[in-house]
Design brief:
8 helices, Rossmann fold, disordered N terminus, 12 strands, 6-stranded mixed beta sheet, alpha/beta
């Protein structure tokens, strides 16, 4: 095991013993009969600790559904979804809420910040609601990593879009989750702000040992990840390591070409 620059242990990337989340024959079906839609078709995939994984695929491929099922935001129709050693299938609402609160961080396209609170108050809000005191050393490392040290007293309307999303990233990291899920986190940002946020996500993996799983449609965003998992028609069809934007775009073009000829 290696150690990050802040002294935070970092799991060996890609190690089979360091799995943050796992899907096994995971299926999700919506509707019945003629209206039935198979969103996920027996998907099996591991997401490794201290690794940044992007999930990509054409519209309707099941990428967002996979993330929602793995994060406990949606139920599964079959198979297994695990966060660490915890099996999500069968957990009641109370235990699912506790799991999401204690083990999972979320970043969405909308920043979801409270306008009356400062940046720092927004960052610590989930822990305040749960009655937990933040680990001050960890919180300071998170704030430094995302570059918010000089903005903690500012309210959202005093921050740029990129800075607001940095607050959302820090909020997701502050509780020290086992895994962080990001759903199109740069969708509302210009290219410069988006690049900053993606850089911070990757830096959270390198410096803080965080695990990040991001759904995106953008090849440039995917190129910040260490790995890209491609879905089509509810199935995993490719798994790319150390992606480049050009390689991801080429793979996505093949999806488009297949769709036009099918």
């Amino acid at each position: 095991m290696t150690t990050g620059s802040f002294g935070v242990p970092t799991a060996v990337r890609g190690s089979s013993t360091a799995v943050a989340a796992r899907a096994t024959d995971l299926s999700k079906v919506y509707g019945e009969g003629e209206t039935q839609v198979v969103a996920l078709d027996a998907v099996s995939v591991d997401f490794h600790r201290a690794e940044f994984t992007a999930i990509m695929g054409p519209s309707g491929s099941g990428k967002s559904t996979l993330m929602h099922c793995m994060a406990g935001l949606d139920t599964v129709s079959g198979g297994s979804a695990r966060i660490g050693d915890v099996e999500l299938t069968g957990l009641n609402d109370k235990n699912l809420t506790r799991l999401r609160r204690d083990k999972i961080g979320f970043i969405f396209q909308a920043f979801n910040l409270l306008p009356t609170l400062t940046a720092l108050e927004n960052i610590t809000l989930p822990m305040d609601i749960a009655g937990r005191k933040p680990d001050r050393q960890w919180l300071d490392m998170v704030v430094e990593t995302v570059g918010l040290s000089g903005r903690l007293k500012h309210r959202p309307n005093q921050l740029s879009g990129g800075q607001q999303q940095r607050v959302a990233v820090a909020r997701a990291l502050a509780g020290r989750p086992e895994i962080m899920f990001a759903d199109e986190p740069t969708g509302n940002l210009d290219s410069r702000s988006g690049a900053e946020v993606l850089g911070f996500l990757r830096e959270s993996v390198r410096q803080l040992g965080q695990t990040v799983v991001m759904v995106t449609h953008d090849p440039v965003a995917a190129s910040y990840a260490h790995r890209v998992v491609f879905l089509a028609d509810g199935r995993i069809v490719d798994d790319m390591r150390e992606p480049t934007a050009d390689a991801v775009l080429d793979r996505m073009k093949r999806f488009d070409a297949k769709g036009r000829t099918s």
